[in-house]
Specification:
single chain; 197 residues; alpha+beta; Double Stranded RNA Binding Domain; two-stranded antiparallel sheet; two-stranded antiparallel ribbon; 7 helices; 12 strands; RNA polymerase II cis-regulatory region sequence-specific DNA binding; zinc ion binding
């Protein structure tokens, strides 16, 4: 279907399940299905109640795989690299999500208007256009927002809180984006280039 080649027949069989949607390995406890038997084995650990604690910070995980990926946060190791742009990640699932930028894959579609999105969170935010839902309201003035991050930025107007501080000049900002923009003054960075000249 997609022209991809594999060194072993088993890998091709597993890959074909992406296209067919086949998930032959089913959890007897909750009914969730998986394309690969090892995914089911890992999932079963959730039901066993067994915990895998991190020796560095004490945070617990339901699988050894999740713990190993968490360790990368402490070591700074980013073993999962994108073959297209070279960007590296601590977690394989984060790389999978990143890869959608290159493949232009948008698996999440809106049932109302058909618009497609790369991430489920973006679809959830978009759906509020149709439902008119604004779940996050300001306790001071009552203004409502579609996302908690937009509410947080708004609340800083009332509190005067500016948690993002410039190390060079001490100026503070409400958002990290505003600080990043400001930092370009000090670095001399000019990321927007004219394509004509």
């Amino acid at each position: 279907e997609c022209g991809k080649s594999f060194a072993r027949d088993y890998y091709l069989t597993v890959h074909r399940r992406i296209h067919s949607g086949e998930k032959p390995y089913r959890c007897g406890d909750c009914g969730k299905s998986f394309a690969i038997s090892s995914y089911l084995s890992e999932h079963r650990q959730i039901h066993s109640g067994k915990k895998f604690p991190c020796r560095d910070c004490g945070k617990s995980f339901t699988s050894s795989t999740a713990l190993i990926q968490h360790w990368h946060v402490h070591t700074g190791e980013k073993p999962y690299s994108c073959g297209d742009c070279g960007k590296s990640y601590t977690c394989s699932s984060t790389l999978r999500i990143h890869r959608r930028i290159h493949t232009r894959r948008k698996p999440y579609s809106c049932g109302d208007c058909g618009k497609s999105f790369t991430w489920s969170s973006t679809l959830s935010t978009h759906r509020r256009i149709h439902t008119g839902k604004k779940l996050h309201s300001c306790s001071v003035c009552g203004k409502t927002f579609t996302t908690p991050s937009r509410l947080k930025i708004h609340c800083a107007i009332h509190t005067g809180e500016k948690p993002y501080r410039c190390d060079d000049c001490g100026k503070s900002f409400i958002t990290s984006t505003a600080l990043s923009r400001h930092n370009q003054i000090h670095t001399g960075e000019k990321p927007y280039k004219c394509s004509d000249c």
